[in-house]
Design a protein that fits this description.
The complex is a heterodimer of chains A (about 325) and B (about 260).
Chain A: H1 6-23, H2 28-54, H3 62-78, H4 83-105, H5 110-129, E1 140-141, H6 153-179, H7 182-192, H8 194-199, H9 204-230, E2 232-233, H10 235-238, H11 241-254, H12 259-278, H13 286-300, H14 304-312, H15 316-319
Antiparallel strand pairs in A: 1-2
Helix pairs in contact in A: 1-2, 1-6, 2-6, 2-9, 2-11, 2-12, 3-4, 3-9, 4-9, 6-9, 7-9, 11-12, 11-13, 11-14
Chain B: E1 3-14, E2 17-28, E3 32-36, H1 43-50, E4 58-63, E5 66-67, H2 73-79, E6 81-83, H3 96-105, H4 113-127, H5 141-154, E7 159-163, H6 171-186, E8 190-194, H7 198-204, E9 207-212, E10 215-220, H8 222-226, H9 229-236, H10 241-254
Parallel strand pairs in B: 3-8, 3-9, 6-7, 7-8
Antiparallel strand pairs in B: 1-2, 1-4, 4-5, 9-10
The chains are: A mainly alpha (about 325), B alpha/beta (about 260).
Chain lengths: ~325, ~260
């Protein structure tokens, strides 16, 4: 059972730390740092389900996050729904969209699938940029009233923060549960050799569609929460292609296929990025560093941080999930 | 004895190329049926049609009383028809135990993880693979062939399709593989096997089907088949080749 996995308790502990640290002394700037880390972990963990577990590279994963943000903000602002319900509905709507996209493009394999994911990102962005109810290219702004139901802006931001941390913990737990399940084993088989997996009895078509849809759910919920917190959304920040690529870098850095690897990669990369972005000398240099880092990882440690640990200590495979 | 698999009038075309043409045969329960033929005769294509990787253009395939002509490979496995690949397909980055657990999890009994692991370690022991926590990529070719068989067996099949499990093995490995195939049959599993190694297939099979250029050329007991003039022609070029070869040998020997 999942409760017996030590890693499950570690996840809860980390989440508790994320909640406690900024609350202690009401440290808002720490909270903002931690939010970015949490978002990175959410994106990397869910991307890991597709790339690390199933072996399908998704260059357009950010589309789920952006679309979730749009649906969430639309529901809270225009429809006046409450935040939690809007975020959940955003997750469900985006998952259903993902299922439809998935059934269409998961017939493709390898580089062709990866190209199709870029196509989906571009198509959705183009659609949203011309969609009147969502404000076309100028996007949407949150009305200040939306914060009232959560007890004012200050309160609302804290609540949003806790919800994002919950989504982060949930992302890692979902990864952990899938990794140890029969469903996960089927995905691993598809990753290693799809034809062999089918001959062994894995219904690859259904499995791929399900995991593609699952990997969309929590990023969409996180998008809804994050853009609610930011108070505005427009197509260029919702569907930021760079962030999609950086998600892959995080995964490669930490170690694809590993729950802790994805989370660690997300957290480390986000810290590095924040440091580089705010440092006066290196500002706007972070993509160069990210590129260099990716090169070093691919060349010298193709399994990322965790893969490197596995190679040093083979027994670690059993302990580190 | 009742029939486990019946293939009736099956054809498979790839564009203009007819790979398998109007082939019919059947396998009884507990039988080992050998499938032989020169390279390009359509043996592996026939396997792929039977287990659903390809869809037959014509004909029907009945397995254990069910029509499986239009089934996909994963559905076929659930019914109890498992196979190995001529070109081995190990799940490289998974351990041997995980490899075989996949077979048990998604096989005929559709076991849950705990039960599947138990079956997997039993099967691994049965086929003689001991270091079950090893990565599949680091196995030798003989080991990978055993792994293929183990994965297929873990699905608890009623019929096992073996595609050239002896190819590329050394004589010792061949001998132990033959013993393994016998053991599998004695465990109540019917076997359909493609093999190029004549001595092995002659001694193992109860009956043999010969394919040539996609058509069935002959069918019968091993010793009937080797003396069939059509079979000899397909393999050696002309019908009385055997006779002539022995004659030439005698002449040279006399000199």
């Amino acid at each position: 059972m999942i409760l017996r996995r030590p890693f499950f308790w570690i996840i809860l502990l980390v989440a508790a730390g994320f909640v406690y640290a900024p609350l202690h002394g009401n440290n808002v700037s720490l909270r903002e740092d931690l939010i970015l880390i949490a978002i990175a972990i959410i994106l990397a963990s869910n991307l890991n389900l597709l790339i690390g577990y199933t072996g399908y590279v998704n260059f357009g994963h950010i589309v789920f996050y952006g679309l979730g943000g749009y649906v969430g903000l639309y529901l809270t602002t225009v429809r006046g729904w409450n935040l939690v319900l809007s975020a959940l509905v955003a997750g469900v709507v985006v998952s259903v969209c993902a299922l439809l996209f998935g059934l269409a493009i998961l017939r493709l394999r390898g580089a062709y699938f990866a190209l199709a994911t870029i196509g989906i990102l571009q198509a959705v962005q183009a659609f949203v940029s011309n969609f009147d109810p969502w404000g076309r290219s100028t996007g949407m702004y949150l009305s200040f009233n939306s914060y009232q139901s959560l007890g004012g802006a200050r309160h609302a931001l804290w609540i949003t923060y806790f919800l994002i941390i919950a989504v982060m913990a949930l992302s890692m737990i979902v990864s952990l549960v899938i990794k140890n399940s029969k469903f996960g084993l089927g995905l691993f088989a598809i990753r290693e050799d799809e034809d062999a997996a089918v001959v062994l009895g894995v219904n690859a078509t259904v499995y791929k569609a399900i995991i593609y849809s699952v990997s969309a759910f929590l990023p969409a919920v996180a998008g809804a929460l994050m853009f609610f917190k930011n108070g505005m959304i427009d197509p260029s920040i919702a569907f930021e292609y760079m962030l999609s690529l950086e998600g892959i870098v995080m995964l490669m850095l930490g170690g694809q296929g590993s729950v802790i690897g994805a989370a660690l990669g997300g957290a480390l990369y986000e810290r590095l990025r924040s440091y580089l972005l705010t440092s006066p000398v290196l500002s706007n240099f972070h993509l160069v560093i990210a590129g260099g880092l990716l090169l070093v990882v691919v060349l010298f440690a193709p399994g990322g941080l965790i893969g490197w640990v596995y190679r040093l200590v083979p027994r670690a495979r059993k302990v580190i999930e | 004895m009742s029939t486990i698999l019946e293939v009736r009038g099956v054809s498979k075309r790839f564009g203009g190329l007819v790979a398998v043409s109007d082939v019919s045969f059947s396998i009884d329960e507990g039988e080992i049926l050998g499938l032989i033929g020169p390279n390009g005769a359509g043996k592996t294509t026939l396997f792929n049609v039977v287990n659903g990787v390809y869809r037959a253009n014509q004909g029907t395939i009945t397995f254990a009383g069910k029509d499986i002509t239009r089934c996909s490979p994963d559905q076929v496995v659930h019914l109890g028809l498992a196979r190995t690949h001529q070109i081995v397909k190990p799940l490289n980055d998974l351990t041997l135990l995980d490899n075989v657990t996949v077979g048990a999890c998604f096989g005929r009994e559709y076991l849950d993880m705990a039960a599947a692991r138990k079956v997997a370690s039993e099967v691994l022991q049965r086929v003689g693979l001991e270091r079950t926590d090893m990565m599949a990529r680091s196995l030798t070719i003989a080991g990978k062939k055993r792994l293929e068989i183990a994965r297929a067996l873990a699905a608890k099949p009623k019929l096992l399709l073996l595609d050239e499990v002896l190819a590329g093995l050394n004589p010792t490995e061949v001998a132990s593989m033959i013993a393994l195939v016998r053991k599998i049959r004695d465990g109540g599993v019917s076997v359909l096997m493609i093999e190029h190694l004549m001595q092995a297939i002659m001694s193992l099979s109860d009956r043999i089907v010969v394919l040539n250029l996609g058509r069935k050329l002959a069918e019968g007991k091993p010793d009937e088949v080797v003396h069939n003039s059509g079979v000899v022609e397909a393999y050696l070029g002309f019908p009385d080749a055997v006779h002539k070869l022995t004659l030439t040998n005698k002449l040279t020997w006399r000199k």
